[in-house]
Every structure is written in C-alpha cells, then in structure tokens.
Fold each of these.
Amino acid sequence: MKIINNQKGYTTSIILLLLLIPLLLLLTITIDEYSHEVDNTVENLQTKKMKSTTQDFENEIATITKQTLHDTTLEVITRKQALTNSKKYIKDKIQSKIDTIEQKQRKNNINIECTVNEIKPADDPFKIEIHYTLHVTTNNSNSKIQKEENRHIEITDTKYPVYDPLPTLKTRATFTDSKVEYTDKLANYITINNSNAYLNSTQHVTIKKCPINDYSQHGNSNITIKNCLNNHYYHNSHDGLCLLCRLENRTTCEHYGFETFILPTEKFDKAPASIDHVLLNDQQGQYEGNNITIDNNTIIYLDNGHKIKYGL
Ligand SMILES: [Zn+2]
Ligand SMILES: [Zn+2]
C-alpha cells in the first residue's frame, strides 16, 4: 500500500504488474499444458486398453468359430440330421456366443458391439470365411474403433476337431470315436457292381488336410500313399463337397471342396472307385475304378482321373 502513495512507488508497481502478466500467462499455459498432457495420457491409456480389448475379442471370435464348427459337426453326425441352412445355423450360433462375451466387456467400461454378417465357404476348402462388423466405444473417453473384418478360420485345428458329416447323413451309418463303421450300410447304398468291396469298411471322419502339396507325389512310394491312407487325410477337390454343403447333405456343391479315400475290404479287379464323393454320390453318379494294390493288406480302386491326380 505504501508503494502506491508516492509517484516512484506507483511506477514501480506498474512495472511489477507488467512483469507479472507474462509470468501469470506462462503459468496458465504451463498448467493448461500439464492438464492437457494428463488428459492425453488418460486418453492414450483408454485407447490402448480399447485396442488390446478389441484384439482379445477378435481372437475370441476365431476360437468361438472353431468351437462352433466342432460342436455343429458333432451334433449333426450324432443326430444323423442334416441342417437346412448351415450358413445361417452357424452364424446364429456364433452370434449368440459373441453376445455373451460382449456383456462381460461392458463391466470393464468398454462397449463392444459385434455383428456377424456372413458365414461362407472360403476359397481354401479347409477354411471358413467369417465376415463381421465391430463397433467399440468406452465410457471414459471419446475414442472409438469401427471396423469391418473378413477372416478365414481354419477347420483343421486339432484342438477343435471338425467332423465330416456326409458318410452318416448319406448311409445312416453310426459314428463312434471319430470314425464311421459302415457295416453293410455303404455296400447297400452303392448301386453299381461289386459294392461288396465296401462291406464292413471303416472311415475316420476328422477333417485333416493332407500335408503333401503336389498330389501327384502320392505315388512316389508305397510309404507315401500308405501314410496318406492310414491318416485318412482329405484333399482339395472340385468335385468334392465343401463342409457347409456336407452339413446340408447335398450331392453337389458350387464351391471348391475336398475329397478323401474310403478303404475297401474286399479284392476285385474292378469295383466302385474309393473316393468319398463317388461312393456317397447320388446313385447315378457312382462309377468304378481299377484295383490298385499298395501292399498285401491295402488296395484301393481308382478311375483314370483320380489315378493321374494322385500319381498312382
Ligand atoms: Zn494325401
Ligand atoms: Zn459347398
């Protein structure tokens, strides 16, 4: 107060005030920046949390899809009842499982909305394509994630075995312990000569992809072809049905599918060809093949086309 009383003091206080203004301004800016930085850190943390939650969620979608394919094929094969619309059936099942995990995330202040738009055969018959839309928001910040995703999920993960339902659907044979015991059912289903070649045959129906990339190498040695037959591998095929069409008990399929060998039990010169889509075709589509002896205990019957394909 004393300063203001004289002229000199008055000037000093003005100078002090003028000096104080930039200092105050600087302080305000610093505080503002500091709080901004805190805000940014919170925002960053939220974004990071959201990103990692979304990543986990998407991994979960892949697992759910595999689990659903395992459950569905097992269900169809056990009940011996085909699905009328396998794409829709699987899509709805996956969606309802996804809805349950969405609920869990809500407790973490992260809202995930995921819609499964489509399930369809992939170009690779050992994969299924899933198309979904994701919308992720959080209660504590403005960040959000919005995306559409097309993913190819493998059906050959040994943790979630997927079973081929066609043998039981076509012949009504019984499935036990990952294989189908045909008894007389396949022989009775076949309408061409020497159907008895398949009396009491057994087919393992877990879908496993043959590791040989160049199929013509199967004939390189008896060991190679025997290894394929003993492991009941499946192969890419234009004529074979895809998994989704197999679940509907179809005879033809417009997608790229797979095929496997069904091992005969009796020896003839000629008998119905040992390819699943030939034997399990509608009865007009069956055709015969020539005996190919692999060793004392193993023979198969193949037509020319399949003989060339597998280099036998
Ligand atoms: Zn093979
Ligand atoms: Zn198909």
Note: Residues 240 and 277 are 6 Å apart (CA to CA).
Amino acid sequence: MLWFKVLALVGLSGESLAQTWCGKHYMSTSSPSEPGGEFPVPKTSSSPLLALRCAQAIRPYLPGDSNGDSDPTAVSILIDAPVTFSRIANAAAITIPSGSPSLEVTVTVNGKTLTTGSVPLNSTKHALPFSLSSLSARTAAYNMTCTATLSGQTFKATGSLTYLPAKPSGIGSVTKMDLRTGALLAKPVDGNGDFAPVFPIGFYTQVDQYLARDLTIPATLAKQGFTVVHPVPGGTTDQATLDRVYDAMQEAGLYLMYDMRGTYQDSASVTSQVNHVKSRTNLLLWYTADEPDGTTDPLDATVKASNLITSLDGADGIGGAGYHPVSLVLNCQDYFFSSYTEGCDIVMQDTYMVGNNVTFSTVWGTPCTTDYGDCGCDNCHGRFEDISDRMDQFAERLFDNGWDRTKAVWTVPQGFGNETYWKRYPTGKEFVVESVLGINHGALGVVSWDDPTTDDIKASASTLALSMPKMTPFILSPKASFRQITINRVDFGLWTVGSKTLVLGANMNNASTNITLSQLGLPATGSSSGISQVLNSGATLDAARNHLVFTATGSGAWIFNV
Ligand SMILES: *[C@@H]1O[C@H](CO)[C@@H](O)[C@H](O)[C@H]1NC(C)=O
Ligand SMILES: *[C@@H]1O[C@H](CO)[C@@H](O)[C@H](O)[C@H]1NC(C)=O
Ligand SMILES: *[C@@H]1O[C@H](CO)[C@@H](O)[C@H](O)[C@H]1NC(C)=O
Ligand SMILES: *[C@@H]1O[C@H](CO)[C@@H](O)[C@H](O)[C@H]1NC(C)=O
Ligand SMILES: *[C@@H]1O[C@H](CO)[C@@H](O)[C@H](O)[C@H]1NC(C)=O
Ligand SMILES: *[C@@H]1O[C@H](CO)[C@@H](O)[C@H](O)[C@H]1NC(C)=O
C-alpha cells in the first residue's frame, strides 16, 4: 500500500477524468458512482451439475521427478469432481445414479493416454499417478484433456501440464507449487539440498533507509524466524548496493520475493530486471502489480507481465509455468478480481482494518460505501472478520473460476499505522490475530506491509515466525485433513495428519475468551499429556478445566495426539 497511489489519476469509461480507488470516486468534489467490475454471482441450477477439473499435482515437473513410498502422488494428475448447484466454470448437468458412484476418468495428452482411474463423484484432489517417462521435458506446456464417464454420460475438462527441462545455468533456482496444498516447494537458499515446502513469512521491507544502510539486518531477520524478504522497489539505492543486500539475504538463508510494482507494465524494464535477478539461488518468486485494482491498471496488464516474466524464466510465455511463480496483491474487495488474478499464480489480499474509520473517510471527508469513498479498507466493517471474509471470498472466486487448484492465496497483515487513514498501529497481538486469520482461511504465505515496524509488532511477528517450523508439517502437508471453525469470535484452523492435530486459534474479541476442547471436537482428558503448545501470543491451555484460555486478542497453537 503506497500513499502516492491514492493520488493516481484514472480515466473512467467516457466520463471526465476523475480520481478513483477500486473504481469509486473518493473526493468530495465527485459524486458516488457504481464502480462495476463485480465478480458475477454464479446462477443457480435446480438440478445437480458436475464441474470437472484436472491439474498436475506439482508444477512444474522437472526431469528426475518421480513418485516414491513417502510421496506416492507427487507425479500425478489431480481430479476435482465437485457436484454443485451453481453454474460455475465447466459445470455440466449430471444425472446421479444411486449408491456411491465413481467416474471413470482418462487423462490424455496429444491424444495419448497419460493415466486413468476411478474417481469418486464429489471428491477433490483425487490423484491419478503417472510416469513422466511418457513425456519429454520442454518449454511449452502440454495441454491435457480429462474425460470422465458415468452411466453413459461424458464430461470433459482441460488443463495445462508443465514439464520443464532441468534449469539452465542462467537460472539460479526453481520454485515449484504443490497444487495438492498450494504451497511453494523450494531448495534451501544456497541451492544445495532437496525441494521442501516453504512457508514464506516476512515483510515488505524498505530499502533506502533500512536494508541498504545495514547489511547485518538480514541475519537478524533470519534469527527472528522470518524466511522471506520482499524489498520495496522505487528508491534511490543503486544496483550494486541492491545486489549486496540480496547477497546478505542469501548468506542469512532468506528467500527473495522480487517486486516489480511501478515497472511491471514496462516490458524493457521487466526484461532487464528479470534477466538480472533470475540467476540468484535465493529467488523464490516474482511479484508484479501492487494493488492494480485500486488504480484500475489496464485489465490485461498483469497477464501480459506474467507472460513476459515467465517467458524469460523458462516458460512458453502463453500461460505455462516457468521456474518461479508470479504473485501480486489486490486491495479491493470486489473489483475486476478475475482479470487481475488471471495474471498470477499467487494472489495476495491486503485488508487493513486496524485504526481506520471504515465508513467515513478521515482523509477525504466523504462517506465510504459500496459506490463511494476510500477509507483504506474497501467495503470493510472495521473488524477482524474483514480479513477472514476477504480470504473466503477470494477462495470462493478461485473455486468458481476453476482456479482453486492452480492458484493460491496469501495474506498481507497490517504492520503499519499512524498515517493517513490508519490512526494507530496494530498491537503485536493484533498483528498475530491478523496473520492467523489469514492462515486459518487458507493463506500459504504471510508477508506484511511493512518493515521497519514497531518493536511490539516485530516481536510478535517473530514469535509467530519462530513457531512456524512446528506448524508447517501440518499446514503444508498433502496428507492433512483440514477444518475451520469459529466459536464466540475465536477463529480456529485444525489440521490432522496421522494421529496428530494442529489447533491454531486467534481470539478476535478484545476480551478474554475460553473455549472448551469439546467445542473443538477434541477429547477432554483433564490432563496436558499428549498436548504441546507451539505458539503462545496470549493463549494457554487449562488442562484441568479442559479449555483453552485466550486473553484479549490472544492467539495460540497446540498439537494434540488424537
Ligand atoms: C458434495 O460435497 C459437498 C462438500 O463436502 C457436500 O456439502 C455436498 O453435500 C456433496 N454433494 C453431493 C451430491 O454428494
Ligand atoms: C494449448 O492450447 C492453447 C489454447 O487452446 C494453445 O494456444 C496452445 O498452443 C496449445 N499448446 C500446445 C502445446 O499445443
Ligand atoms: C467514523 O466517522 C463518523 C463521522 O465522523 C463517525 O460518526 C463515526 O462514529 C466514526 N466511526 C468510528 C468507528 O470511529
Ligand atoms: C506518528 O507520526 C507523526 C507524524 O509523522 C510522528 O511525528 C510521530 O512520532 C508518530 N508517532 C508514532 C507513535 O510513531
Ligand atoms: C481493547 O481493550 C483495551 C483495554 O480495555 C483498550 O485500551 C483498547 O482500546 C481496546 N482496543 C480496541 C480495538 O477496542
Ligand atoms: C477462563 O478460565 C479461567 C480458568 O482457566 C478463568 O480464570 C477465567 O475467569 C475464565 N474466563 C472467562 C471469560 O470465563
């Protein structure tokens, strides 16, 4: 979120030039106007529909990738066969026979069968393993066709399958996406070791006054538990100094999230930046547009940028994956979501609801409504639920578009304040609530705006970051079963892997709140044996009373043997 963007001048369809944010006039000299660009509510159907989808389990594949005992579905095609009454992407009428019917699915590439199998109706992520030996590695993504039959009915879906050659010498690293979970898979930042799930947690980080001034900062951030640094571009630091900053990050074991806001529509600039950075072994992913929906950037700008970036990074430049995924952030609640999100693999949301008046703009002196005003949080209610609601809306839209398997959502917790709309900083505990809400509602990365921040936020963010290695074996596991539940405004995510369940909870109330284990569907034994706490941001277990005690805006995580 950059202040100058609020001042961007944007032309609206045929009207005189007017200043808008999320398509809404926000100055008192203009009147309210319908912004448009709303995500269409899918029409309903009175009879069931099958919305068949298929995707590769891990993207991209590389030569040598194979299935093993520990990961038998790594090389497979994931079939999603949701039955729905909404006319979402690729939904087709289905007559459902009685019993527990299964679809007979065949996946073909270039007319040749890649894999087949029986897939239960209404299942998700059903893996059909295959062998890469039936394909050759190449730049161009393969088009695959997935055909399902059931009692004489036939359904079709198409998908993309990227199987790239081993990275050439000019490419420093590869970041895959595990589409079974949405998580990133990368090698350690020095390039030595195996691919493993990475949970990116860190900050958009200022360069001129901070990173460039002190090359020991990355080592400190790494010690504090952060895994990624997202340098904010646009300053005056010269390239040689920037490179030393990236080197210091690499030495500290931190991944680089490379931001091209401000230049992402300039193909010459993007080309030289990508070619300069792509040989780094700590490059984790690209980042293009910063709130393009706020400024109403051209609707095809993010797709064009992504195609250019990936074409320089090993891909075909028409939608196939390159050696690193592409990300961006959206600020609006509902403004041309699909157009901007089409141009990324990871869409972030930055719902900033702490310290601002979300119904009356303290900056512009206008009300904020669905067709007017800018209050620093689009269509918000000024409560923590704005974050979880936004996460859920993004997830729902990805599902409706048939993108839920192929794109992931990350969260941008508010780590700033005392400016413009936001009259105060979040407290450290509030910062953790913001972050946990994102994670419990599907975020696979937490990158806050912005560092430097308050000592309180930094300390709490570090507490969360240092706890992540205990939690990611659950959150990023393809074997996890997941459920989310909110009780008395305490938001929980529960991930079960084998005989253990991770419980991650955040209290949205500004008052102490107790939640019993039975409310969470967990066994109440009156003892803490078999339970270990892995995050404490103001929440503890009272084992004798079989409940979790959350202080005001407290958060905690525990691993239960179940
Ligand atoms: C399909 O699965 C969803 C989610 O699990 C469930 O709510 C729905 O009832 C199921 N529909 C059918 C037809 O089985
Ligand atoms: C895959 O399909 C797309 C769109 O239909 C087409 O543009 C592209 O050339 C195809 N790719 C291959 C490798 O056939
Ligand atoms: C927001 O500002 C309006 C107008 O000044 C005021 O009536 C309202 O109470 C404020 N809301 C909050 C939550 O401060
Ligand atoms: C808030 O911002 C003002 C103006 O920039 C500054 O003078 C003040 O020190 C800041 N306060 C805090 C707590 O950061
Ligand atoms: C939360 O409660 C504390 C103590 O009563 C109070 O100082 C603070 O302003 C409250 N925060 C919010 C966001 O209402
Ligand atoms: C929560 O439980 C603790 C004991 O574990 C008790 O001291 C506290 O009063 C309870 N809080 C509420 C709000 O019921």
Note: The chain has a mean pLDDT of 96.
